[in-house]
Write a structure and sequence with these properties.
The protein is an all-alpha fold and 244 residues long. The chain is 77% helix and 2% strand.
Length: 244
Amino acid sequence: MATVLLFSILFFAASYLLYRGKLARFLGNRILSMLSSRDWAVVILGGVIAPIIFYYAINQHTPLGVRKWNIIAADGMLILVQFQSMFLLMITASYCLLRWRLSGESCGLVRRTDWWAWSALASSLAAMLLIGSNGYEVSWMVFTAVGFLVYSVSFLLLRGIRGLISNERLISVAAVNRGMIILLMLSTICTSLLVPFYYVDEKKWIRADTLYTLNPEHLELDNRSYRTMQAMKQVLDERLEMIR
């Protein structure tokens, strides 16, 4: 779902530039070229790398990583919402930082990042932290975290629709979209690097599992089922012994 969202936004941003024509693409590229290597470093580190590191730190090294529960805890919402929060945090942070650096380098052609964009960033961050505080069952924290995500997604959709149907500040929107295409491609590449890491992590925990490991000596049952069957057999033997 998160991958679909990321590719949808990337497709939308690319389609916008094609829709607006060559002039918008040319002027947008000219404004984007005003960014220095330092500006790009700030945007990439803060908008792409930092959210991934933050998610990894929370997920692996804090009690907010929802790793104490299994995947069906809270109807599977814990893992889903926290992972979606990372994606939205990457997108909103990239957008905010890109506009912030462009506004300083373009002599006012690109407006500064407004409070709405920063609030969408804060909403994504709050969702990631709040869902980690939830217990095994669905509670108000789950619904609140989902509400935060809906707010962030609504911001992205409404901001994209407004840029598509309005001709106001056309060059500014074209420059931001052009930059976002680059950042979204980097986000896709960086998040794909998490796949082999979590695959290895999954294999580690499977090897450490002592309850659901299959054992040929246990009639092809996992250890948990075999122990349960043995306990039931012991109780049954005790009852039969009492009857005798």
